[in-house]
């Protein structure tokens, strides 16, 4: 594999990860069909939870219930370290920063984590085949009653809770 193709693959994987975060924050779960491999596995380890699951449809359904109409979220990933292993395999590390408001529980979770992903290339498209993270720090607190939300996209697009 030449250097130019490796750089193209790295950029495509960066776009893939960004689509994942956009999909969950905007409740665009159909977008995940072009992000997750069919047999994806996940293992997310946080301060108050551990979520292990497998299969694109199962994970999509769980995410629909997590990013519901009583939530607001923001996920960003920084400092990608992507390694192209072969024409069809790659790994990546990402530094996550996220905020998740859960209005029906009157809580806000903020934190950082280190993602470690595996990617496969099928039909010339990169997909996430495995994703895991460990929290670096996580803070859960009550929502400040003085905070006034003027818009919350998930209120309109998230499933009814």
Task: Give structural notes.
The chain has 161 residues and is of the alpha+beta class. It has a single domain, classed as Nuclear Transport Factor 2, Chain: A, CATH 3.10.450.50. Helices cover 24% and strands 48% of the residues. The protein is built from 3 helices and 6 strands, in the order αββαββββα. It has a 6-stranded mixed β-sheet with strand order 2-1-6-5-4-3. A hairpin with a 4-residue loop joins strand 3 and strand 4. It is globular. The chain starts with a helix and ends with a helix. The mean pLDDT is 97.
Average the pLDDT over all residues and give the rounded result: 97
Q: Please state the overall shape, judged from the principal axes of the Cα atoms.
A: globular
The largest pleated sheet is described as: 6 strands, mixed
- Contiguous low-pLDDT stretches (5 residues minimum) are none
The total tally of domains equals 1
Strand content: over 45%
Figure out the total of helices: 3
Please count the beta strands (DSSP E, at least 2 residues each). Answer: 6
Q: In angstroms, what is the radius of gyration?
A: 16 Å
Q: Distance between the terminal alpha carbons, to the nearest Å?
A: 48 Å
**Any guess at the CATH architecture?**
Roll
Structural class: alpha+beta
CATH C-level class: Alpha Beta
What is the helix fraction of residues, given as a range?
A: 10-25%
CATH topology: Nuclear Transport Factor 2, Chain: A
Major beta sheet, strand line-up: 2-1-6-5-4-3
Element order: H for helix, E for strand:
HEEHEEEEH
């Amino acid at each position: 594999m030449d250097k130019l193709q490796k750089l193209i693959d790295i950029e495509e994987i960066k776009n893939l990860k960004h689509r994942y975060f956009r999909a969950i924050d905007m409740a665009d779960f159909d977008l995940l069909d072009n992000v997750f491999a069919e047999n994806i596995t996940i293992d997310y380890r946080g301060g108050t939870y551990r979520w292990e699951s497998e299969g694109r449809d199962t994970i999509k359904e769980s995410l629909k219930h997590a990013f519901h109409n009583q939530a607001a979220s923001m996920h960003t990933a920084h400092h990608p370290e992507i390694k192209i292993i072969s024409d069809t395999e790659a790994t990546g590390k990402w530094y996550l920063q996220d905020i998740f408001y859960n209005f029906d529980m009157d809580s806000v979770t903020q934190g950082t984590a280190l993602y470690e992903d595996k990617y496969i290339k099928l039909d010339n498209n990169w997909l996430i085949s495995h994703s895991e993270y460990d929290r670096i720090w996580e803070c859960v607190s009550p929502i400040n009653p003085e905070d006034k939300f003027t818009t919350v996209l998930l209120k309109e697009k998230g499933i009814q809770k």
